[in-house]
Amino acid sequence: MTKYIIVAGGVISGVGKGVSTASIGKILKEYGFSVTAIKIDPYINYDAGTLRPTEHGEVWVTDDGGEIDQDLGNYERFLEIDVPKKNNITTGQIYKTVIDRERKGEYLGKTVQFIPHIPDEVKRRIVDAGKGYDFALVEIGGTVGDYENVPFLFAMKSLERDIGKENILYVLVTYLLIPRHTEEMKTKPTQQAIRMLAESSGIFPDFILCRAPIALDEVRRKKIEVYANIKSDYIISEPDIDTIYRIPLDLEKEKIGEKILDKFGLLEKKKADFSKWEKLVNNIASPLHRIKVGIVGKYVDSGEFMLSDSYISVNQALIHAGANLDVKVEIEWVDAKKLEKDEFEVERLTRFNGIIIPGGFGSSGVEGKIKAIKFCRERNVPFLGLCYGMQLALVEFARNVCGLDGANTSEVEEDTKYPVIDILDEQKEVLRNHDYGASMRLGSFAAILDENSIVYNLYNKRLEEDAQKILNLKGSFRLGILNSEKAVLERHRHRYEVNPVFVDVFQDNGMRFSGWHIMTNGLKLMEFIELPSHKYFVATQAHPEFKSSLENPAPLFFGFVKACLE
Ligand code: GLN
């Protein structure tokens, strides 16, 4: 029977519930258990596909084509699992399902009410997502006391009644403030959050995770014990640290894993070995080398904080690659629009060891990005292009190497003379039939790799890992036409493609297509490009940053950081 661990947040938002959830999962996985993680987002949006990156951070893409909340990225980065889209539950999904069912008459004339129909649908989804795993972690978005998350907490209490308290436990992640004028850590908001949780849903936490600028002292631990009536063994200190990847190690020191198993009456399946993880964390904390990378993007004008959130996976993938190469990757965000008019700004790109052009949409900043790509290509500066980054690298190459003056993507200029990147008619049809998103190509697709390419060499290890996944996907449109070739799976989120009409021109001028996908209708879509004579000029139509984890960095990021280092 699956054991459920419910994680809720108290006092303030943004305390790091997601990372705490992922860290608990990581520990249990290290003990030999199978773990999955589910995130509940109380917003009404059906999914995160339409959320603005500057407001809500990046949209996370799953293997099965879901556009979900970026928080689920932490689960994959820590747990090395492929989280399916059904693991992100929103209020919108719950109500839509219930109303659709009512419209079809499936409630047989009964009055459809909040109780029991809404919590029932929540439970149904959670049980379905947790099926087959030893542990299902369920993170409830928002903060205790929000109106919006009451239905979900209520559903969890009801799940407890269905499956028994012995199969479920609750973790409250709270924050202990230290007001500047008293310089004393305050426990009262935490006591109140505990009380609010109990009053609103009858849930009493089994564990309190105390986030704070500093570690919890014994006096405050005791205070929470007395006021909240929770044994201090179950009050866990989680102070601010240098890197989020240290949290599983810190929580392990507090023996949270053992204590959780104890509560469930379980024993470790294997001895935990955190040595590789620890080594990587130490590399992040005190790296041997240092490089500086420029990320030229569009969503950079919303203040320091938001901007890194719009590209959080790119950021994390660089940390992963850096940790594995013992190098700190310093990131500077460059506003693409600034490069458009200002040649001096372009020249200033010399301050970077390498440049990344991440994904993006629309025409804003495009010419600036193209200038940055030209700079990298001509000056032999390492370049990594992701999705739009690859498309624009081909636009640049078409204009400045192939002599296709005025070449463009039809996303920016619909009637361009040379639409080297275009939306393909055949594809529109196929996309419609598969019904995976309005018209975007979403989720994992297989790419056949050219065995003589830089990309192929970088994907060496992944080719083996993906072979099994490819077998499991047999018959799926995601593989396309794939025989015995060497292939990898990467995630996609885009509408436009390399126009097949121009592939020969590109190749004749020295651009190498090192990977492609052949659709079930025979259409060949270009997935990877590289310039063989360049130090590192690699780009992909996919988003490899979505499959990067601390222990298995994304191959193209690894290659990029390595090239920057040389
Ligand atoms: N705008 C481009 C497209 O839709 C690229 C999308 C992206 O970078 N994710 O094809």
Shape: globular
The CATH homologous superfamily of the largest domain: P-loop containing nucleotide triphosphate hydrolases
Q: Going across the major beta sheet, what is the strand order?
A: 11-10-12-13-21-20-19-16-17
- Tell me the name of the CATH class of the largest domain: Alpha Beta
Strand segment tally: 21
Describe this protein with a few key phrases:
single chain, 566 residues, alpha/beta, Rossmann fold, 2 domains, 9-stranded mixed sheet, 7-stranded parallel sheet, 22 helices, 40% helix, 21% strand, globular, binds glutamine
The gist of it:
With 566 residues, the chain is α/β, with parallel strands linked by helices. It folds into two domains: 3-277, P-loop containing nucleotide triphosphate hydrolases (Rossmann fold); 287-423 and 495-516 and 526-565, Rossmann fold, CATH 3.40.50.880. The structure holds glutamine (GLN).
Question: What would your notes on this structure say?
Answer:
The protein is globular, with a radius of gyration of 25 Å. Strands 11-10-12-13-21-20-19-16-17 form a nine-stranded mixed beta sheet, sandwiched between helices. It has a seven-stranded parallel beta sheet with strand order 5-2-6-1-7-8-9, with helices on both faces. The longest helix has 17 residues, at 114-130. Mean pLDDT is 91; it is low at 302-306. β3 and β4 (67-69) form a beta hairpin. The termini are far apart. With 566 residues, it is an alpha/beta fold. It has two domains: 3-277, P-loop containing nucleotide triphosphate hydrolases (Rossmann fold, 3-Layer(aba) Sandwich); 287-423 and 495-516 and 526-565, Rossmann fold (3-Layer(aba) Sandwich). 40% of the residues lie in helices and 21% in strands. The protein contains 22 helices and 21 strands. The structure holds glutamine (GLN). Residues 359-361, 387-388, 411, 493-496 line the site of glutamine.
